[in-house]
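User: Sorry, folds how?
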Amino acid sequence: MSTARLKTGLAARPAQPDMLPAFAHMQRFWDPQLDSWNVKILPGEYYVTRGEEAVSTVLGSCISACVRDPMKNVGGMNHFMLPEDASTGPNNWLDPTVGLATRYGSYAMESLINDLLKLGAIRERLEIKVFGGGRVLSGITDVGARNITFVRKYLQLEGYRISAEDLGGTQPRKVVYFPATGRAKVRSLRPVENRIISHHEQLYLASIGTAAAVAGGDVELFD
């Protein structure tokens, strides 16, 4: 590549948006396919931004909520999974004697929403899209279905409306969200990627299980 072309390419790339101090540890990279800066989040993480950038993740049985205030231009995404505990069952996550779902699912939702409110977002204006909850893990318990039940019930109880969703099924997904515009892109992944994601989610389930024991609008589909 010539020096002239390199300079042109660098000039065409926008400067990185300011990153909020709480998320300074997150990794951001330039994604030429998206023509955007992109922050990838992992299970148990969330990210909030006031800039024009993308937030992406890969979901198997996990859930991601994408939330923004379209008037304040703040938004973000989380990525969470309920602990796989046979004693809880699919419908009693609100039972105060259980507590594990609240410890993970509610924390993920409240952390994201509360950070947006601190930046001036208004609850009544929040636009919420939810993704994931696929049946990709083997076993008796359908972890994805439990996650779907949780996020729908949580949002209903808190008085929020889901503006768009892509939930369930048997394939993992890649989700890319643009908080500045509210645009979401969802792509189903191949079986070989499914095996990798399932392995990572099993590891994540084991990690949160250990931690629990210690502590006690429109969606654009693309190919």
